[in-house]
Design brief:
The complex is a heterodimer of chains A (about 240) and B (about 300). Helices cover about 35% and strands about 25% of the residues of chain A. Chain A has a single domain, classed as P-loop containing nucleotide triphosphate hydrolases (Rossmann fold). The longest helix of chain A is centred in the middle third of the chain and has 14 residues. Chain A is built from 10 helices and 10 strands. In chain A, helix 3 runs parallel beside helix 6 and helix 4 crosses helix 6. In chain A, the strands form 2 sheets. A 6-stranded mixed beta sheet of chain A has the order 6-7-8-3-9-10, with helices on both faces. Chain A has a 4-stranded antiparallel beta sheet with strand order 2-1-4-5, covered by helices on one side. Chain B is mainly β and about 300 residues long. In chain B, a hairpin with a 2-residue loop joins strand 1 and strand 2. In chain B, helix 2 packs across helix 3. The chains are: A alpha/beta (about 240), B mainly beta (about 300).
C-alpha cells in the first residue's frame, strides 16, 4: 500500500516560490487500478515524480508498505518495486532498445524474452531490438518502448504519466489490455495512471481528481466518473466540481 | 616461435579480441620483435629491409580473408617506430585487424608509433579495425602515435573502426585519406580519456575524384582531468559528398576542443559537419535510476552505450 501523508512541494525559480502540491494526502491500496485526472497544471506529473523520488517533498511523508520512503533515493525506490513511465521518454545515443530492456529487467535477458515485451506494446521485435533509443525513433515508438521497460520490471507499484499521449495510431484497446495483463500477472500490484482519457477512466477501480495541487475528489469509478463526465467530457472535471 | 607470457596474452585479447594465435594471415610483434607470422596463398607478409616493419601484399580477388597484425609491449622503456604497408589488389574483400597494447609497470615511458599505409586496389573493400589499449601501474607513460594513410583507388571502400578506450597516456593520431572516383571512406572513431591523459585525433580526407564520399564520425568521452583535441577535416575537390561529426561527452574536469572543418574547392562538393559537446543529460541518469541503477551505474551504462 502506498500512503501519502500531508505532502507539499514548492518549486523555486529565480527567487519566486511556486507551491505545486499543497498538503496532499491519499492512500492507494494494493491491487488497485487508480487513475489520476484533473486540469493541466494541477500537479499530476509533479505528484508522480514525488512518488518515484525524482522530486523531493518539501514536507510530508510517503509510506510504501509501512516503510517511510520520504528520503529514499530514486534508485532505492526503484529497487523497492516502484516503476515510472515518463510522459516524455528520454532518448539515448548508443543504448539500444535491447540494452534498455535488459537494464530494466535487472538481469540477463534473452532476446526472446525482450521480444515478448516489445510484442506486448505492439512493436515488431526484430525491427526494434537492435535500434538505438535515439532521435531516429518517433515519439510514439519511444512511448511504447517506455511502457515495455515497465513490463520488463517486476514492479509492485507502476506509475504511468499520460501513457496514451503520442500513441494515437495504436489502439486504446491494446493499452488497456496491457494494464489488465499487468494486474493479472501480479496479484497485489497497484497501477497509478495519469490520464485525461475517458476510456482509461472507464477501467479504473478508483479515480482521483487533482486540481491546484490537492485532491478535490477521490472515490470509486462508479462514484466519481458520473460527476466528471456528465456530458462525456472528462476535461470539464474541474468546472463541474467547482 | 616464442611463447607469449600472460601479460602479452591479455594485451592481445584487448587489442585484437584474440585469445591465442589467430587463423589466417598474421604477424605478431611483442617487445620490439616478431614472435610469429603466417602467410596464406593469397596474403603474403615480408619484413622490410630498410626500416622496422612489414609489407603485406594481398592478391587480386582475395575475399573473406583476414590479416591480424597486433603489437604488444610489456617491457618498460621500449620505444619503437614501425612502418607497415598494405598493398591490397583489385576486387578484394578483406578484414585487417591491427592494434597495440602497452603494459607499463615500470618508471620509463613506453612508446609505439605505428605508421600504416594502405593502397587499396580498384573495387576492393576493406574493413580495418585498430584498437589501442594501455595498462600497468608504473609511473612510465604509455604513448601511442599512430599514423594511418589510406589511398583508395576507383570504386574501392574502406571502413575504419578506430578505438582507444583505456589506459593510453598520450596519443597523437593522424589519419590521411585520398579518394579516387566513386571511392568511399567510412570512419567510426571511439575515444575515451581519463586521468591526466591527452589525446589528439587529426583527420584529413581529400575527396579528389567524382563520386567519392566520406563519412567520418568520432564519438568521445573525456573524464577526470583529460584533454582531447578532435580535428576532422574533409576536403571536397570535385563532385563528392562528405560528412564529419564529432560527438562528445565531457565529465569532471575534462576538456575537449572539437574542430570539424570542411574545405570545398569545387562548386559541386556537398559537405556537412556537425559537432556537439555536453555532459550526460540529467534526465538520462534519472531514467536509468528509475530502472534501479545507481547514479554511477547509470553513468557507466550511458558511456558504454555511447562508445559502443
Amino acid at each position: 500500500m502506498l500512503e501519502l501523508k500531508n505532502i507539499s512541494f514548492t518549486a523555486e525559480n529565480s527567487n519566486e516560490k511556486n507551491e505545486i502540491i499543497n498538503d496532499l494526502s491519499f492512500k492507494a491500496d494494493d491491487n488497485k487500478f487508480i487513475v489520476i485526472t484533473g486540469p493541466n497544471g494541477g500537479g499530476k506529473s509533479t505528484l508522480a515524480k514525488l512518488i518515484a523520488g525524482i522530486e523531493k517533498c518539501t514536507s510530508g511523508q510517503i509510506i510504501l508498505d509501512g516503510v517511510d520512503i520520504t528520503n529514499a533515493s530514486i534508485t532505492e525506490r526503484a529497487r523497492m518495486g516502484i516503476g515510472f513511465a515518463f510522459q516524455q521518454p528520454v532518448r539515448f545515443k548508443g543504448l539500444t532498445v535491447y540494452d534498455l530492456l535488459r537494464i530494466a529487467a535487472g538481469k540477463q535477458l534473452s532476446v526472446s524474452d525482450a521480444c515478448v515485451y516489445l510484442s506486448e506494446v505492439g512493436l515488431c521485435a526484430k525491427d526494434y531490438i537492435k535500434r538505438e533509443v535515439n532521435a531516429s525513433l518517433s515519439g510514439g515508438e519511444l512511448k511504447r518502448i517506455e511502457i515495455a521497460t515497465i513490463l520488463a520490471r517486476n514492479v509492485k507499484l507502476a506509475i504511468f504519466d499520460e501513457p496514451e499521449a503520442g500513441i494515437d495510431l495504436w489502439s486504446f484497446s491494446n493499452l488497456i489490455r496491457i494494464f489488465e495483463n499487468m494486474r493479472n500477472t501480479a496479484p497485489g500490484r497497484t497501477i497509478i495512471v495519469i490520464s485525461h482519457q475517458e476510456r482509461i477512466l472507464d477501467i479504473a477501480d478508483e479515480i482521483i481528481v487533482l486540481a491546484d495541487g490537492n485532491v478535490v475528489r477521490h472515490g470509486s469509478r462508479e462514484e466519481v466518473l458520473p460527476e466528471i463526465t456528465g456530458k462525456g467530457y472528462t476535461l470539464n472535471a474541474c468546472k463541474k466540481l467547482s | 616461435m616464442k611463447p607469449m607470457d600472460p601479460v602479452q596474452k591479455r594485451l592481445l585479447q584487448e587489442v585484437a579480441d584474440l585469445h591465442d594465435i589467430p587463423e589466417g594471415a598474421y604477424n605478431l610483434r611483442a617487445n620490439g620483435e616478431s614472435v610469429g607470422r603466417n602467410t596464406t596463398a593469397n596474403i603474403d607478409i615480408k619484413s622490410k629491409t630498410d626500416v622496422s616493419g612489414i609489407d603485406i601484399r594481398i592478391k587480386d580477388g582475395t575475399k573473406n580473408e583476414s590479416v591480424h597484425i597486433p603489437v604488444v609491449l610489456s617491457e618498460s622503456g621500449l620505444k619503437e617506430t614501425v612502418y607497415n604497408d598494405f598493398y591490397i589488389g583489385e576486387d578484394c574483400d578483406v578484414l585487417i585487424v591491427a592494434g597495440c597494447g602497452i603494459d607499463n609497470c615500470g618508471s620509463q615511458d613506453s612508446q609505439h608509433d605505428g605508421v600504416h599505409r594502405f593502397f587499396v586496389g580498384k573495387n576492393s573493400k576493406i574493413r580495418y579495425v585498430e584498437k589501442h589499449y594501455g595498462s600497468g601501474d608504473g609511473s612510465g607513460q604509455r604513448i601511442l602515435n599512430p599514423v594511418t594513410e589510406m589511398y583508395l583507388e576507383e570504386g574501392s571502400t574502406a571502413e575504419l573502426e578506430m578505438v582507444q578506450i583505456k589506459g593510453v597516456d598520450s596519443t597523437s593520431r593522424t589519419t590521411v585519406a585520398e579518394l579516387k572516383k566513386d571511392a568511399k571512406l567510412i570512419v567510426h572513431e571511439r575515444l575515451m580519456t581519463h586521468g591526466k591523459q591527452r589525446a589528439e585525433s587529426i583527420y584529413k580526407v581529400s575527396l579528389n575524384e567524382e563520386g567519392s564520399s566520406a563519412d567520418v564520425v568520432s564519438r568521445s568521452v573525456a573524464r577526470d582531468d583529460s584533454y582531447q583535441k578532435l580535428d576532422l577535416c574533409v576536403l571536397g575537390n570535385t563532385a563528392c559528398t562528405g560528412h564529419t561529426e564529432c560527438d562528445s561527452i565531457i565529465m569532471d574536469n575534462g576538456r575537449i576542443l572539437a574542430v570539424p572543418s570542411l574545405e570545398a574547392n569545387s562548386v559541386d562538393a556537398s559537405l556537412v559537419h556537425e559537432a556537439a559537446i555536453g555532459k550526460i543529460a540529467g534526465e538520462q541518469l534519472i531514467k536509468l535510476m528509475t530502472l534501479g541503477l545507481t547514479e554511477q551505474e547509470a553513468e557507466e551504462q550511458i558511456i558504454n552505450g555511447f562508445l559502443k
